[in-house]
Amino acid sequence: MAMSCPETRKSVPELFGSSVFNDDVMQERLPKDVYKSLRKTIDEGKDLDLNVANAVANAMKDWAVEHGATHYTHWFQPLNGITAEKHDSFISPTSDGRVIMQFSGKELVKGEPDASSFPSGGLRATFEARGYTAWDPTSYAFVKGDSLYIPTAFCSYSGETLDKKTPLLRSMEDLSVQALRILRLFGDQKSKRVVTTVGPEQEYFLVDKKLYDQRPDLRFTGRTLFGAKAPKGQELDDHYFGAIKPRVAAFMKDLDEELWKLGILAKTKHNEVAPAQHELAPIFTTTNIATDHNQLTMETMKNVAARHGLVCLLNEKPFEGVNGSGKHNNWSLSTDTGRNLLDPGKEPEKNTQFLLFLAAIIKGVDEYQDLLRISVASAGNDHRLGANEAPPAIVSMFVGDELEAILDAIENGAAYTGIEEKKLQTGVHVLPDLSMDTTDRNRTSPFAFTGNKFEFRMLGSAISISCPNIMLNTIAAEELRQFADQLEGSADLEGDVRKIVQRVMKEHKRIIFNGDGYSEAWTQEAKRRGLLNLPTTVDALPRYLDQKNVELFTSHKIYTEAEMEARYETILEEYSKTLNIEALTMSEMTRQDILPAVSGYIASLAEAVASKRAVISGLPCAAETSLIQKLSGLLDSAYEKVEALDALVTDGKASEYDHNTLRVATYYKDKIIPAMNELRAVVDQMEVDTSAAFWPYPSYGDLMFRV
Question: For the segment 634-650, what is each residue's pLDDT rounded down to a tens digit?
């Protein structure tokens, strides 16, 4: 009998980008003149000719069909933070009743999804249905399943942006313009474009699918609304960087391969701090592509987990009492010639250009603290920020000892004497002594300089990275614009830059903090410095429409004022809806499962007491009677609190009719959340005292330690 040969596995270089219509594929399949024209559109922002679009569309369709695609979709990112897609087949009927596979340039460039069914914050009425999707040629198309996915922007019939990509692209273009003005001052005539790059580190939890299905709170809200603390949590720090369990390792291997096919630079994987928590980190890439890739990464994580009998949780706080999940946004600035503009070099005190860019970011972060906080605002992330597991809601910057010393010297007009290079002595002869960086890292800082980039650490796990990067790009563009206005025509560039840096430090050094951001002392110090402390979404979001912020975005043509108001309304509405779903879920779980379960356990205890005393009159039953008494009191309390919660939710729904989204969101923050917390405290205590045989849901111990 003939032996079958095992299937040859592709190497990683062969696998990488194999499902992507990337530059190599375009070079191979497009006529030279078409490819050259398309590259001008991508690299220089030139208008796309329809003839070129037709040629690209035909080549793209042929390639996609060869990769198993039968449909295409314009893949876009509406304001609800997820991705959206409508699939159309390539088939076109012929006169003889057959079909051919066709795809035109017009179909590639523009789609027409229904705009009325997506959040618009009041920009679009329900009856105003027409919307457009426009191909983004700077982000490569790819095949997933049986469809060709075409990254697109999304706007309404009347031209308002209804997505997260369009303003991101605008912010990138604007920052490039202002950064090039600065580079020209320093004699750089070669660079044609400055791009922001991002590497988003993605944290997530994995739980068993069978256990997940038994938890209505996880299914409906993405987080546990009830749950007593497990006997073991993360206190031993034995999960972080620990050996990866075989089931998880198999998932990670599968995930890497799926991401590599899509051209996503998945690089690092490890266990995070909390049990069942993990992290995936990619290599940085251009911000709009990184945004697309991160959306794909989150979707792929969920799909691959399902193949392994797992569920991937991306909620910021799936489990009370253990670390939640964030997403660290590693942001930097680079030229198209390959220079990192945030690289201080070996002698940063002499790198005038770097110091000017650094000063722009320091000034911008201080002046627009509110926008950075708003960019990460959500109901889920409110649970995480400031919980001694993530940065506080107070925005500050970490620059490290060396840069702080340099900036202090400039501020005071003093000479910088430098920091002596140190060696880390291992004390073991076979191990080399290690060169030490001049600055440690600070994981408690919201916005930390890490050598040649800034790590924005406040993002929640589920968030689209587009909004934080729109904010960062626009803020940086504004500060660089101001500096360029001051320096163009300068007779003493070096001296005038020093004056700007000196002024920035005198006026904005309050934003720099290199200490422990988790400490209560920092909260008090930040207040003394006059820094904002905006603990919740409802506290932060009204500042979005402050005049200075409206002027920032409208003057740089990132948003119109109407588009800003729409985003404000959308975020508040999502906040209230999220909490409403959570409150209704809590109520249903309490009434339908928890109260009957505890009542049943009390009845079984009473039965046990009666049975024992039927055998021997007066037999001691202290344990049972004590539990009956304790649980009966807790049961009554839980019933009272769920009744109170339901009444508040009803009142909250009634208040929606005044069409004031801030008032409704404030009501949920001030009334619903405390009522939910009170109900949870009672229920979690009942879980501790109720037999596991009666409790209706898998425990924290089951969820976190059975993967």
Answer: 999 999 999 999 999 99
